[in-house]
């Protein structure tokens, strides 16, 4: 087992979207006071690291992904002193702290940009990409329009890969690279254990490529990442890139043990199998394609790399709504998807609310949405497809992951985003009191994982995968685990598991005597000693 896998595979990361996790002071926005009150809830779930989506000062055009000060805490969440004590408290509970590093762009209200746009010859003039004429026709991600925005002050255009209020930093400028490195050092010195790195491969671009594939994974990416994270004293800092341009082929170079670039990077292919040309448009989904894509990544990374195991995040709709059953089999499908994913070899990432099986909210009016991407999509789409546009927003909106966590059935009087329409039904209190608690299943699953090295470090082998079900094993010299996961229909199964013991079942199965048929969304973890 190499250094990387030994050090980082035992992580179980929980993603907190600070605005929507827990409102401790009743102002209608989540905060660290609220978060702290839920630390035991997370500890008991089996989590040992928390990734906070951006919690820095921000005008919130893109909910914190437009940062106006990298080295402070937004006053809506608390302050820096409180955050320092929070880090201490989390460490005392054995929970690591991972921050979101948004290094590709800042807010247009960041001091650097405010100065930069003033003139062509001040200290910050070249902190951003300024050009006399647009260099290409790249469309901005998520927001539709051109990436080039005219600014009267400089009589020039600046680049924004996302909203126009999110200008891209010019990474070809050494001073910019130094600044971001200082940001990393600042947080590491405060005790932060890692970073989730927002669209990090976009820091190197190739403007000569006419389509926007040039906006990422550019020629200098390896150099910049080495410079940012390659120092020996950052060896223990965990990093996970959101690098859409880093495919399996590039993974070893960027995330290999000796690369000093990143420790790992998300791959999202398996959770996008249900969408067509955009996240708002549905496509037929095959269970086998979902499982097979994850298996391909596990196989390619199993020796010495780290594969983040992910089902949801703040940009994605809820997994039960995508691949499960929101109604009759919500418990079964939520737990089956978790079993399939989190028994694989890799690092589990759990997005807030996933552990109680939250589903997409159903609001038929755009006024119930806040996300800039959804609003832009709606405003464009309504012109051509007024009949389907709302259905598409319900299906694909990033707000599906951003509605507040319902800790109990009481709807708050005030919240920055309309709470979930099922707040009264799908909430933590109800889940914990239910005979079929999804939280308790997750807790059990993570406990089994943490107590069995085989499930963390053992080999992976796919046994069988079809459109109806899949079986794989995790194995080392001590134990063999079989993970059996069924999709939506009952399935006859012909696998001899008579000498295996059931250690987890989402149908309360105690043993495998006479086992020949799987129920809808059934999941079984079975084990034998070797
Ligand atoms: O997301 C990157 C991003 O643009 C994704 O939304 C991606 O393009 C899309 O999912 C492809 O289907 C990150 C953050 O996670 C997101 O919240 C921010 O809006 C964005 O960067 C800008 O910072």
Could you characterize what this model shows?
The chain has 530 residues and is an alpha/beta fold. 28% of the residues lie in helices and 15% in strands. The chain contains 17 helices and 18 strands. The protein has helices at 3-8, 18-21, 32-37, 39-45, 80-92, 111-116, 174-189, 221-229, 248-255, 287-301, 319-323, 330-342, 372-381, 389-396, 428-433, 438-451, 453-457, and strands spanning 13-16, 49-52, 96-101, 130-131, 148-151, 156-159, 194-197, 238-241, 264-265, 308-310, 347-351, 459-465, 469-475, 479-486, 491-492, 501-505, 517-518, 523-529. Helix 13 (372-381) runs antiparallel to helix 14. The protein starts with a helix and ends with a strand. The relative contact order is 0.10. The mean pLDDT is 96. Bound molecules: 1-O-alpha-D-glucopyranosyl-D-fructose (TEU).
Mean pLDDT across the residues is 96
Report the portion of residues in β strands.
15-25%
Low-confidence region ranges: none
Helical/strand content category: alpha/beta
Shape: globular
Biggest beta sheet attributes = 8 strands, parallel
Helix content: 25-40%
- Strand element count: 18
Number of helices: 17
Cα-to-Cα separation, first versus last residue: 20 Å
Bound compounds, each kind once, are: 1-O-alpha-D-glucopyranosyl-D-fructose
Task: Write out the strand line-up for the largest beta sheet, numbering strands in chain order.
Answer: 9-8-7-3-2-1-11-10
Rg measurement, Å: 23 Å
């Amino acid at each position: 087992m190499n250094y990387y896998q030994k050090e980082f595979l035992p992580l179980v990361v929980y993603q907190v979207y600070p605005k929507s996790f827990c409102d401790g002071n009743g102002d209608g926005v989540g905060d660290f006071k609220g978060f702290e009150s839920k630390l035991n809830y997370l500890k008991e779930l089996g989590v040992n690291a928390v990734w906070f989506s951006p919690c820095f000062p921000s005008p919130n055009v893109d909910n914190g992904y437009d940062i106006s000060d990298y080295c402070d805490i937004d006053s809506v969440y608390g302050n820096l002193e409180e955050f320092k004590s929070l880090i201490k408290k989390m460490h005392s509970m054995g929970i690591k702290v991972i921050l979101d590093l948004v290094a590709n762009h800042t807010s247009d209200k960041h001091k650097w940009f405010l100065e930069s746009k003033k003139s062509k010859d001040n200290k910050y003039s070249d902190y951003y990409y300024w050009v006399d004429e647009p260099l290409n026709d790249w469309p901005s991600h998520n927001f539709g329009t051109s990436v080039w925005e005219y600014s009267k002050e400089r009589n020039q255009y600046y680049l924004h890969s996302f909203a126009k209020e999110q200008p891209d930093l010019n990474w070809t400028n050494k001073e910019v690279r130094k600044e971001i490195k200082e940001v990393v050092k600042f947080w590491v010195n405060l005790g932060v254990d890692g970073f989730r790195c927002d669209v990090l491969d976009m820091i190197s671009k190739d403007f000569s490529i006419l389509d926007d594939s040039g906006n990422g994974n550019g020629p200098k990416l390896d150099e910049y990442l080495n410079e940012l994270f390659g120092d020996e004293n950052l060896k223990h800092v965990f990093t996970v890139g959101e690098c859409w341009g880093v495919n399996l082929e590039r993974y070893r170079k960027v995330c290999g043990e000796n690369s000093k670039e990143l420790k790992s990077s998300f791959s999202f292919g398996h959770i996008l199998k249900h969408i067509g040309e955009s996240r708002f448009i549905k496509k037929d989904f095959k269970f086998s394609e979902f499982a097979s894509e994850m298996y391909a990544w596990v196989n390619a990374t199993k020796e010495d790399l780290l594969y983040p195991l992910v089902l949801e995040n703040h940009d994605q709709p809820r997994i039960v709504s995508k691949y499960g059953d929101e109604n009759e089999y919500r418990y079964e499908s939520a737990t089956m998807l978790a079993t399939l994913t989190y028994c694989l070899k890799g690092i589990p990432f759990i997005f807030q609310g996933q552990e109680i099986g939250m589903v997409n909210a159903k609001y038929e009016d755009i006024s119930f949405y806040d996300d800039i991407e959804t609003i832009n999509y709606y405003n464009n789409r309504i012109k051509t497809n007024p009949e389907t546009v709302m259905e598409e927003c319900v299906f694909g909106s990033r707000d599906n992951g951003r509605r507040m966590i319902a800790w109990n059935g009481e709807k708050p009087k005030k919240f920055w985003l309309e709470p979930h329409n099922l707040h009264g039904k799908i909430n933590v209190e109800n889940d914990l009191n239910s005979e079929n608690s999804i939280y308790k299943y997750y807790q059990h699953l993570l406990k089994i994982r943490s107590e069995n090295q085989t499930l963390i470090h053992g080999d992976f082998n796919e046994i069988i995968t079809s459109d109806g079900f899949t079986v794989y094993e995790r194995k080392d010299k001590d134990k063999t685990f079989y993970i059996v996961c069924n999709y939506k229909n009952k399935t006859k199964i012909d696998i001899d598991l008579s000498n295996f013991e059931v250690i987890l079942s989402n149908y309360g199965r105690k043993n495998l005597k006479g086992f020949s048929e799987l129920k809808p969304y059934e999941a079984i973890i079975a084990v034998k000693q070797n």
